[in-house]
Amino acid sequence: MHVKDIKSMKAEIKFSARLFQEFIAGRISADHFRGLNGALELFESQMKQGQTLSGARLESAGIDQDDDYLVFQFSPDPAARPLKNPKT
């Protein structure tokens, strides 16, 4: 799994496409998925920072690799941030 900040305004989360498919297919539990790579916590941390999902892509790992990567992109979303009083 890989997390990349882009100019502190955008972020990416990259992890095994097969692992994600096994999770979605119900072959592994959410707790097991969380324990393997921390991806669920990374999604939560993006929400806490006011960033929401803005894109996704499949990235090839190359012919010699067993697995490809699923990459999720996040961008700032004012609606996802807590409201703040501008006078304080």
Describe the structure.
The chain has a four-stranded antiparallel beta sheet with strand order 1-2-4-3. It is elongated and about 55 Å long. It is an alpha+beta fold and 88 residues long. Strand 1 (2-6) and strand 2 form a beta hairpin. It is built from three helices and four strands. The mean pLDDT is 81.
Average pLDDT metric: 81
The helix-and-strand class reads alpha+beta
| CA-based shape | elongated
Count of discrete alpha- or pi-helical segments spanning 4 or more residues: 3
Residue share in helix: 25-40%
Beta strand %: 25-35%
Order of helices and strands: EEHHHEE
- N- to C-terminal separation? 39 Å
What is the CA-based Rg, rounded? 15 Å
Strand order of the largest sheet: 1-2-4-3
How would you characterize the largest beta sheet? 4 strands, antiparallel
Number of strands: 4
Low-confidence stretches: none
* Quaternary structure: single chain
Layout of secondary structure:
Layout: E1 2-6, E2 10-16, H1 17-24, H2 30-37, H3 39-48, E3 51-59, E4 69-76
Antiparallel strand pairs: 1-2, 2-4, 3-4
